[in-house]
## 1
Amino acid sequence: MKLSPSNVRSQLTIWYVGVLGALLVAYGAASLFFLFLSMREQVDHNLLEDMETVEGQIAKEPDGSLTLRLHHGEEGDPGLHRFVEIWSAEGKLLYRTPQLDGQALGGPPSQKEASEDISPVSERLPNGLRVRLASSPHHFDNYIVILRVAHNEQAMWRELREFTTVLLIGLPLGVLLAGFGGYALARKALAPIDAMTLETQKISAQDLGARLSVQNREDELGRLGAVLNAMLGRLQGAFEQLRRFTADASHELRTPLTAIRSVGEVALQEPKGPAEYRDVIGSMLEEVDRLTRLVESLLVLSRADGSHVQLHRADTSLLSVAEEAASTLEVLAEEKRQKIDVEGDGDLIVSVDRLILRQAIVNLLDNAIKYSPVESRILIRVHPGKNKKACLNVIDQGPGIPAEHQPYVFDRFYRVDKARTREWGGAGLGLSITRWAIEAHGGEISLSSKGGDGCTFRICLPIASDTPSQTAGRVSATPRMENDL
Amino acid sequence: MQEAKSHWRVLVVEDEAKVARALREGLEREKYEVVVAPTGEEGFFLVNAEEFDLVILDLMLPGRDGLQVLATLRKRGLQTHVLILTARDAIEDRVEGLDKGADDYLVKPFAFPELLARVRALLRRGRTEQSPQLRLADLEMDVMTRNAKRRGQYVELTAREFELLEYLLRHKGQVVSREMLARDVWKETRATPIDNVIDVHINRLRRKVDEPFNPKLIHTVRGVGFVLREE
């Protein structure tokens, strides 16, 4: 199609009008054709009837000549549509209707005409009159005359022409009206979409709270609206998260930057001794270290978001990883006279990147040590879970995490106690990284805590399948970069 | 520092002026002869014209990419050591660098003690003390028998404390960052929060090795790390 209007409304209308027009044209043509057939059949039928009538009217005069005894009034009636010619077998014209004004209904009869009936054929007289002509041989005593009868078809053609004219005028008019109707209908049907477009245009990144109004959730448009609304909801969530993340990240970056700046500026206010300068530079470097760590943690998370991290999985006993993590952090617990107990099923094998999983457990254990009181006990328990999972619980006896904070503890930069965590040097990314590490292994992490009763972080990982060949090849697939994280 | 006498020539290809200056000063202090090329073009020209023992190469350079400089160097067939510096943290870049013939890489921002340690290792100066007997002042360690003595007295150390002291002793006189300790002694990834663990171990080591004796050997360099040396 060459025409391609920009809106659906016009496209629909054009298609509709096109299809309707084609249908009507076909219908009109067929009607015309059948009308013609039936009229002609009528003409032929009359013609044959006339033939018989005329046969009966032929009379033989006593002198041997033939006359046509027409009924009264027929002879000179100019409206009569019937023309008659009678020929002798030898080719001599015996009679011709006067209305023909001497025009012939054809030349002398052929051999064929003398022997059999000729069914009606269309002829055109020299004066242009369209006629339907039939002939039939007629036996009189011992000789044959050929009877030709013709009917004027002028009336039939006129009727057909009139019918065609009606069609030609009426059809486009009908199609035009139908087109207007179709356009109006399409507009009515599509109006809700236009409304939806307008509504959607008004929703911007600054105002993602708005939703499309949905009249009927069951129809197509309602479903579209509902789907769009759901998408808007997700978008809003993502934007909100991004906004919070950016705000938090810049806050976390600003804190060490402020420290570096003020320490440096104050140090330059008046001359100092080498030891003091050394101290100032050291202090600034500490903040730089904090910044570096923060940036590295963010990189870990952003790479995790882009799924750029390749896990170097190997079948590993979950308990043994827990024991490693515990032995690494044991000294911290000792400093607070805490006790770390690791217990459980050592036969639970998971397919994991040992370094990353250990880091995740160290994060959890580090938190547990920080927040648990002096001389308390921290328990790491490994046990089989539902659905072929191996679970690890880190159970502490700290103050617990209030219910209102629990849904957010895994969020980036989230801190239960803002003031307190700062002094530990964390930026609130540890649990985010832990959650990422566990989820990257196809596992789940959850928290349960009843106020004041300590809290339990639970990690559940899929138990390694019995086919170690799957993982064996991947362990050394790429060079291990110890510095990656 | 007996090895400081030798003249190792180091080319630093680095466009960031401050970093280049810090590298030059830091390396010259360690008695290296340092040439700085501020652009890839100049680095390219220099590695073609002169010979160096080590090239410290920034990957992100204006003009000519660091990797191209590296490729040229390797095409000349020179056995110059190449240490890549990169701010690009993508693993692929590093792998590409190592594929093209770099010997080692460091991700910016790096700690200077770490850079020095890598440089020494590349110039085969870091392994001068592979012997099982290690010594600084009156501190002695025997790695084979796993004994540590201070002024002739045995010092009881846990396995981790022993490894930590051994690492410090092998790097005596050099500042060692917490990052290096976390990686080389604890074998942990960078993001694992074990700075506190390291500090606790250092304190314990001090109590056992330093407190009863003089002079003190384990020193904290604030903001950088630790160093084992006689004051």
## 2
Amino acid sequence: MKLLRAILLRLATTAVTLAGVAVIVFVVIRVVPGNPIAMMLPPGATDEDIARLTAHYGLDRPIPQQFLIWVGGVLRGDFGTSITNRQPVLDLVLGRLPATLELSLLALVIAVLLGGAAALTGTRLGGTRTEAAIDVANGVALSVPDFLWGLVLVLVFGVLFPIFNISGRVTPSLDLPFVTEFYLFESLLRLRFDLLADLLSHMILPALALAIPLAAIVAQLLKQSLKETMHLDYVTLARTRGYGETRVITREALPNAILPTLTLVGVQFTFLIGGTVIIERLFSYEGLGNMAIDAVINRDLPLIQGIVILFAALFTAVNLTVDLTYAALNPRLRHGG
Amino acid sequence: MQMNRRTVLKATAASAALGLAGLPARAQGIDELVIAYNVNLPSWDPTVGASAVNPTLQGLYQSVFDQFILQQPDLKPAPGLITEWGWNEDRSKVVLKVREGVTWHDGSPFTAEDVAWSLARAADEKTGNPIQFIWSTLGNFQVEGNTVTADVVRFEPTIFKWMYFLTGYVLPKAYYEKVGPEGFEAAPIGTGPYMVDKFERNAFVRLKANPNYWGGKPEFETVTIKFVPDAAARVAEVESGNSHVTLEMPYEEYDRLKAGGLTGVAHPISDIGMIFLNDVEPMLDPNVRKAAVAAIDKQTIINRLLSGYGVAIDTLQTPEYDAYDPAIRTPYDEAKAIELLAASGYSPDNPVRFKIQTTKGFKPKDYEMIQAIVGLWRKVGIEAEIEVYEIAKHYELRAADTLAPAAFYNWGNSVGDPTTSTGFAMFGPSPHSVWDGEDLAAMIGPLWGEADEEKRIAGWKAVDAYIAENALVIPLLQYVQPILAAPGVTVTPHASGALLPHLMKRA
């Protein structure tokens, strides 16, 4: 009951958060320099042409009125029409969202696997050169931002040893039988491993670029948590029962040590999604981030608004999911303790 | 394994065989040409919206659609869908002869009705054609056989040039009316050398050769154009062999990759770099303006910053433009610049100060060029403060006439007519101009509707000479477009800057 009340309260605050984001983004992109009408003015435009174009895109009205018109449309599911693409914003954004979600999730899985493996190995081989090497690797991974990793990966695995593809989401010549934009997911469901391989070949480098810094964070935090947990009495008891060190770490220490890491991963996932903007651009990956950059360059106000609102909704959904998962895993939270 | 001469020879032979077998496809026959392109394609309609006036997208449009009149790689017109064009004797009508035997990509016949409809649609302000102000100078379109005639509502000397310029494309009347704008966006058809096979927004477009193209079927049956906006990624694409052709990379990378085995062509295009001068202090002082021009060593800037890839210009016309006059010169002269500034009381110890605005990374070495110019100015007594802004802000400030006293910009003019370079850039009432001098506006005004072509061109040359004499703008250079290609591909560059797959051949 308490959990249900907490969920409802979170949903209410989410709505308020999204409303606040909508106001801020609407106002900010209209006051920052850059007028979309000025950018598309024909060479011989007259004052009447400028006025006509401005009215055509609804930019002649006062900002509060523009906002109310836009909000009214959003509540009816109409996010407006993209100035550059001349398509409904909602269609464009929802069409690109699955690509970004799949990339983000793949990056998250890689980060957790890499980071988890590094943490477990470092804990198991604590005090050895291996642990020291892992610490050094973590430091390097954390120091280098994701877009630099992207450039390194392009150079190494795209040019020097061309194993993977460095642009796009899928090989253009392939015929795709998918009905949704969740290509990776559908290729698995349809057991189309040829398409799965092609998709992964395109996604692995951008996913790695996103994952490496997060993997380092996961490794560092989890290793620290494990080290602290390893000194607790119940772990010592497990050892005295004759359990091997690996079992002590994975079965006894890990379930408790992982909780703080889980929270951090959830928070960091939102940053990871934000990081897709630059990475998608670098790898010409057809996700929301790549579209966002074009929208900003072209001052495509309706599209910028739609993308920002969607990202905000995504972030709040991720945070809510993390909180619920944490509550599910931590009995003390489930029972209000 | 013990190494002896036999082992070494065997290993060498094996390595050579492996190396030959592993030669990338680019050195052998290319079935599907892959191009790494530098921009995304937002919309397929080449006649409406912001995309229609984006010069970088015209190469994509010209692969699928034909313009009314063909523009050759040297910018000169040639018979296209319109085979003959002109005015009647009293210039009250235009007469267009339409090519016969052409089909749309869906197999339906192309007719003069399509031409008339496309022109009428372009002239209709409701359809949102950004160049409607030009197309609306024609009206009352009539079709008789393969001839289209139209009344001249207002005489526009450049009307035929616009038929191979921005938004000058023929679209299919019957198909467009049947499927509507949304249907056309989803499945565009044209009469062009390639048909759209598959399009993924922000990703790629896959084109199939039009076997019935009136200009001859293109060499490559299938062309995939990947949208790769990042320059480093484009370089990696061709270096790895994932793409066969790309454009717009740093000149240093162009030289490196050419030396490394790729082929390339770097050709001057119709894009120019220039510095707008605003009619505000201190630019109202002609000595300051003339000194600013004289103090810039354009050729050295091109040689040092752009690896020699660029052509110094002294007017807003490049050598390919119709009103280019090589006699108009504004040579580099540091001593003259110092003298001019001294006449107005300025010197290196007492410099004139103003702001110069520039983009950074929008054009090759834009910011670095301005840095170099500011350094040259400092030597003669001009202290300029650099302000970096985005191109979007430049457009906004220009439209509001609130640019700084100096502002760097690039200007594209793929049709090469002086109205679309000097005209729009320097005519005060135009929203694109910055210098609002009434004397200049008075010189330019009569040229808009001048019917005598010789007189018109001579008039524009006189305007350019006046501008140069009074330093009302600072032309800098004509850009050179670097194109890299795999050894198996020959690229014919187009002076408009459009990268056209149908001009590419197997080497």
